[in-house]
Structures are given as structure tokens and as C-alpha cells.
Fold this sequence. Notes:
Layout: H1 3-17, H2 20-25, E1 41-46, E2 49-54, H3 65-80, E3 86-91, H4 104-113, H5 120-143, E4 148-152, E5 155-157, H6 159-165, E6 169-173, E7 177-179, H7 182-185, H8 193-201, H9 204-213, E8 217-218, H10 219-225, E9 230-232, H11 235-250, H12 254-268, H13 272-286, H14 291-300
Parallel strand pairs: 2-3, 3-4, 4-6, 5-7, 6-9
Antiparallel strand pairs: 1-2, 7-8
GO molecular function, one term: delta(3,5)-delta(2,4)-dienoyl-CoA isomerase activity
Protein name: Delta(3,5)-Delta(2,4)-dienoyl-CoA isomerase, mitochondrial
Family: Belongs to the enoyl-CoA hydratase/isomerase family.
Amino acid sequence: MNIRTTKSIVLLRKLCLYPRALRLNNPSVQFISTIPKCEQLEVVEKDHVFNVKLNRPESRNAFTLQLWKELRSVFDHLSDYSKCRAIVLSGNGKSFCAGLDLKHGLTDIIALLNDNEKDTARKALELRKFIEIAQGSYTSIEKCRKPVVAAIHSYCLGAGISLISCCDIRYASTDAVFSIKEVDVGLAADVGILQRVQKLVGNDSLTRELAYTGRNIHSLDALNYGLVSRLFESKDDCIHGAMSLAQEIASKSPVAVQGSKMALNYARNHSVEDSLEWIITWNQSQLQTEDLIINAMAKQAKQLPEFKDT
Ligand SMILES: CC/C=C\C=C\CC(=O)SCCNC(=O)CCNC(=O)[C@H](O)C(C)(C)COP(=O)(O)OP(=O)(O)OC[C@H]1O[C@@H](n2cnc3c(N)ncnc32)[C@H](O)[C@@H]1OP(=O)(O)O
């Protein structure tokens, strides 16, 4: 064993023995606690719950390339950040999300299509990268290990529906209006609505009707359709309701909650047989958690259980 390897082992041992609080203050591992810097998102924390807010109110939170990239970096971070146990996704300003930014988003695409330096194949590859970034951004919400509750108010259009389709739970205020609007812009939706929505709501016929017409769906219809699971009188009530739900989720065993999300995600796209096999493999390790004992002891003592972060 050379000197460098010995040094690395000593360093590793020190890191493992280091108290966690100290590790968080150590600049070399500080990334664990730092939310990525964002201009088009605002992120606030309260008691293990993170509220991620779309923050382009002057454009009704329409999506730009930058917003897609910021969303991805925040959700990738929160997925791994042990202090985070549940997330609320909401929108600042008058509307939750007006879909693709028709000024900046579209002008970028049009500039690319008009670029005479590039042949058709190269333009297609550039467009492919663009769509992949948008898809990957939303998929990071679905893959995030922590449950995400969307709190939707006013307009939620086009890419906004792709966004909420990746969330675990959707709440809305009674003023909410939804539309699979892509058909009115002249494109087949490509960032998740058509792949996810009918699986969420279990109504293929109505999904097709809405996708082919771009018709508005008002909050009560969205509730009946199964797109949202609860309605609130106002935006503030909706965010409050979503935060309370997230806080309730955050009080449960993180091992149990995260395992449940992973299992439900897997089951949506696999057979019952495969999914049962999957949960055996998952739980053969996760059933060894101390959270089972903590829960049982708290019940016996008639106290609320307190769980460690994951
Ligand atoms: C690779 C492709 C990936 C994804 C593709 C997704 C496709 C889609 O998302 S399709 C949906 C596209 N979105 C729309 O068609 C919505 C357009 N906006 C509206 O219809 C309305 O603005 C509204 C959302 C119904 C809100 O109305 P209101 O509250 O009355 O506000 P306005 O005065 O209309 O708007 C205020 C301000 O915001 C700007 N804005 C609104 N939406 C967008 C948008 N999608 N893109 C860019 N900017 C938007 C609007 O222009 C106003 O700006 P001012 O500078 O103040 O004029």
C-alpha cells in the first residue's frame, strides 16, 4: 500500500467518525446543505419541508431553458439532501404556470430553425437536446425521492400540466384553469403530458378529447377528472393545505415514505408480479430500519415518534 492510499484511508476514517453537524460546516463537503443558486425559482424551508416556487411572475411563470435547468438542479439536490423530507411546488404571482415561454422559448427555437449554417440533421440534433433538457427537468421531480405536492392556482397550461403530472399529489384553488394547450400552439406535446396524464387519471377518452381540442378544464372538472385531489377556496388556502400535508408526510418515517414513493413509481409502469418482486428486494434491506422500533416504542409510550434524517 503506498503513502497516498494510506492517507486516503485515514481521511475516509476521519470523515466517517466526524459528527454530522461538523461535516455540514466543513467547506469541502458543504454542497450537502447548499441549495443551488437560482434566479427563476425561489426556495424556502420550514421544518424539513421545502417550498419550491416558480418565480417569473411577470411572465406568469412561463418556462425558459434557464427555468428548466434550475428546476432540475434544485430537485436533484433536494432528492439527495437528507434534511428535506417533503416538497411543495407552487407559483409566485397571478398564475401557477403559463406553459412554454412563447417569447424567449419560441424565439430560441425559431432562431435555430433559421440558422442557415446548420443542415437539417444538425438542427434536429439541437432540437433534440432542447427537448431532452425540458423532459429531464420534469422527470427529476418524478425521480426525486421526496414526495412533491403541487399547489396550483389560476392558469396551468401546456408545459404547466407536464410539470404537475410529475408531482406526487396535486391540490388546486377553485380559480384554477387547466388546458393541454399545445394543439393551439401547433405542436404535439413532448415534455410529458401525453405520456403521463392518462396514467394518472385513468381516463384515456377524456384525455384525448382535451389533448385534441386544447379546451379549458375548470377546477371542479379537474377534480372529477382526477387531475387534482383537493380544492381550496383561494391560492393562500391551497398553499397552506399543501404545506400542512407536506408537514404531515415529513413527520413520518423517511424510510417508509421514500420507499412508498419508489414502490408506487415502479408499480405504475410494471406488472403486479414484477412490482411485488421489486418490493421484496427493496424491503429485504429497508425492513431492517430502526424506524420500526422507534414507531412501536412511541406508540407504547403514547408519544409522537421522531425519526432521523435519511
Ligand atoms: C420543447 C417544447 C417544450 C414545451 C412546450 C410546451 C407547449 C406549451 O406550453 S403550450 C402553452 C403555451 N402558453 C400559452 O399559450 C399561454 C399564453 N398566455 C396566456 O394565454 C395568458 O397570458 C394567460 C396565461 C391566460 C394569463 O392571462 P393574464 O393573467 O391576463 O396575463 P397577461 O396580461 O396575458 O400576461 C401577463 C404577462 O405575461 C406574459 N405571458 C403570459 N404567458 C406567457 C407565455 N406563455 N410566454 C411568455 N410570456 C407570457 C404576457 O405576455 C404578459 O407580458 P407583458 O410583457 O406584460 O405584456
